[in-house]
Design a protein that fits this description.
Layout lengths: L44 H18 L6 E6 L1 H13 L5 E5 L2 H13 L5 E5 L16 E5 L1 E2 L4 E2 L14 E4 L16 E5 L10 E6 L1 H9 L13 E2 L2 E2 L14 H16 L2 H21 L4 E3 L11 E6 L2 H4 L3 H17 L15 E5 L6 H26 L1
Parallel strand pairs: 2-3, 2-4, 4-7, 7-8
Antiparallel strand pairs: 1-9, 5-6, 8-9, 10-11, 12-13, 13-14
């Protein structure tokens, strides 16, 4: 029989490394929700003031320009992206960039649901980034800043033309609060509360540049517009949506939770501190990978590697020679073993991605928990490998 390696001595104090919903901020307790405006109309003065605070504190932390509109919208980041696609696309040709599952989802919606006549799909496999130089500034461009399921992100916005004629629509849900976004390069930006800030699900954020507002007020899509996507009234922007009057009823409990997360972000130093926490956590994993004989980053170019959704591929020759189904079962077995030990929850790779692990390293994760996790990753993989080899003998 092959020997099973010894378990590490130290466990992460918090085993929550899920890529969404993500871990709450350090020190979070349910008591922070005690001031939630429960049982109140979200249109009443005090509850609406809380919604406005979410908008304005997000603007302040992220450095969003004063002339950009910000709204709280339904259906998480997905709803925010769909709202932008259905409301803004049509007048120009469209370049859709995809290098992981969510970007591919926007391709499907644009090609098969909206059925736009002039669409160019620029795709890259998991672990790689599309050639950004192929984008045309005369066309609208849709892309995911951070590929949550591939661990690949764009490094910056230098590839976006300042004098572009088209709009840039950016799904930034695993990037916002973790990188400094170039707002002057972006016309519609979306995210959800449950990612970098560790908030609750179901609510999305939509940011529109003046150029996007001009598109909304000068163009009417030919398709029927669902009520929850409507951003204009009588050919003009529905300003109340961007002043805390949400299209449908929000959860004031979730609003209170988001306010707590934003207050925490301000208390630790705002966006620079959030970015530093993400990059510090990612560096721990980078140091571990550099010394590993079985693990590597799925993102092939370090310049395009996500510092939040860190995707790990298994490069051990024993593993790579297994049949595809066995590779998937093996990576799942590693994740399941770690969960059984109470060390790390929900870190198996995304179902459409190559078999491997996906570890959230966002700002709400403490660095010492990542440091404590890495020996357990080695232990779990070695244990599963030894058990598999023994069963095959």
């Amino acid at each position: 029989m092959r020997s099973t390696p010894s378990k590490p001595d130290t466990r992460p104090a918090n085993p929550l490394f899920s890529s969404g919903p993500c871990a709450k901020r350090p020190g979070w307790d349910v008591s922070v929700l005690s001031d939630a405006a429960l049982g109140r109309s979200h249109r009443a003065k005090d509850p609406k003031a809380k919604l406005v605070r979410v908008i304005e504190e997000s603007r302040d932390i992220l450095g969003i320009p004063d002339d950009y509109r910000i709204a709280i919208v339904p259906a998480s980041d997905t709803g925010a992206v769909e709202m932008a696609l259905w409301s803004l696309l049509g007048p120009r040709g469209v370049d859709v960039l995809a290098w992981e599952s969510f970007g591919s989802g926007w391709v499907t919606d644009i090609v098969k649901q909206l059925k736009l006549p002039d669409v160019r799909v620029l795709e890259a496999p998991y672990g790689q980034l599309v050639d950004l130089g192929q984008t045309d500034p005369g066309r609208d461009c849709i892309f995911t800043w951070n590929g949550t399921t591939s661990g690949v992100r764009v490094a910056d916005g230098d590839w976006i033309a300042d004098d572009r004629a088209g709009l840039t629509i950016c799904d930034a849900t695993s990037a916002v609060f973790a990188v400094e976004l170039p707002w002057d390069k972006l016309d519609a930006v979306t995210w959800s509360w449950q990612k970098v800030m560790g908030g609750e699900a179901q609510h999305g954020m939509l940011v529109l540049s003046p150029r996007a507002v001009e598109r909304l007020e000068s163009y009417t899509p030919h398709w029927p517009m669902p009520k929850i996507f409507r951003l204009t009234k009588g050919g003009k922007l529905s300003e109340e949506i961007f002043a805390g009057s949400t299209i449908i009823t929000p959860s004031m409990l979730c609003v209170e939770d988001q306010l707590d997360a934003l207050t925490w972000a301000q208390s630790i130093g705002g966006l620079p501190a959030l970015i530093a926490r993400c990059e510090g956590n990612c560096q721990v994993l980078a140091d571990w990978v550099s010394n590993s004989d079985w693990a590597a980053f799925l993102a092939e170019d370090s310049a395009n590697r996500s510092c939040t959704s860190v995707c790990i591929k298994i490069v051990d020759p024993w593993f790579t020679e297994l049949p595809e189904a066995d590779r998937a079962a093996t990576s799942k077995a590693v994740a399941t073993l770690l969960e059984k030990e109470g060390v790390a929850y929900d870190i198996n790779g995304y179902r459409d991605a190559p078999p491997g692990l996906r570890i959230w390293a966002g700002a709400t994760i403490e660095r010492d928990n990542v440091e404590a996790l890495t020996p357990w990753l080695d232990w779990a993989y070695a244990t599963v490998k030894a058990q598999s080899q023994a069963a095959a003998e």
